[in-house]
Amino acid sequence: MLSLKALTKTYANGVKALGGFTLDVAPGEIVAVIGGSGCGKSTLLRLIGGLDQPTSGTTSINGEIVNRPHPLINLVFQEPRLLPWLTVHDNVGFGLAHADRDERETRVRAALQRVHLKDYGHRLPKELSGGQAQRVAIARALVMRPEVLLLDEPFSALDALTRATLHRHLLDIWSETGATMILVTHDLEEAVALAHRVIVMQPWPGRILDEIIIRRRST
Ligand code: ADP
Ligand code: ADP
């Protein structure tokens, strides 16, 4: 269980990005967070991902406080952020550099299979389409077997057809792994298509304006 308690974030320049954000996310739940530009969505994900510290409040997973990158929590950003000099295989395996070699190979292969790229391991990032590169970024997160996957507008740079395909992939991944997901998006249609629950944020400072239950979690 992921628990966010009264998170606030005021940046050094005085901008109040978050003004008290409280949310419990159940295991296996997909929560979409929507809201206009600048309402604190990326700030929220960076705090949950342990990439930045809140001004006050806490994030915890299974009762353990998160204040730096946590092995059970992984992020996918809007851009794939692949290392251009490494192959797809090595990008995906990067976080497992210290794992046993057989274990690493098995997990990289499984992660690439999950995003339907099992024959793309030898390619370099520049040899991929935008949708393929983003699938590699998803595989790179999945290979770490996160309990919580944070997705920061992961599909917004892609064309509508690719986006629809990746929605399908993401739901398949969810059924296979049962991962908890927090999806930040400004696309209401995407939020409704994927999430169990949609959180609507209001800006200055970012907080929860409304919460809409879309579907039961048993599906
Ligand atoms: P969103 O993801 O919803 O667009 P952000 O979390 O990126 O919102 O930003 C929330 C607010 O915080 C905005 O006003 C933004 O300009 C500001 N902000 C974001 N990052 C920083 C930063 N590193 N330093 C100062 N202000 C920031
Ligand atoms: P998509 O399958 O996402 O629609 P594209 O239409 O962009 O991808 O690409 C079609 C095919 O061309 C894909 O198999 C892709 O791997 C390949 N491809 C795309 N860009 C490049 C590139 N820069 N170098 C090599 N192959 C590429």
From TrEMBL:
For whether the record's keyword set contains Transmembrane, the answer is no
Tell me the leader sequence span: none
Query: What are the alphabetically sorted keywords of the record?
Result: ATP-binding, Nucleotide-binding, Plasmid, Transport
The domain of life is Bacteria
Segments forming domain ABC transporter:
2-219
Q: Which GO terms of the molecular function aspect are on file?
A: ATP binding; ATP hydrolysis activity
Q: Which family does it belong to?
A: Belongs to the ABC transporter superfamily.
The name of this protein is Aliphatic sulfonates ABC transporter ATP-binding protein
User: Where is the organism placed in the taxonomic lineage, from the top?
Assistant: Bacteria, Pseudomonadati, Pseudomonadota, Alphaproteobacteria, Hyphomicrobiales
Which stretch of the intact protein is present? 1 to 219 of 269
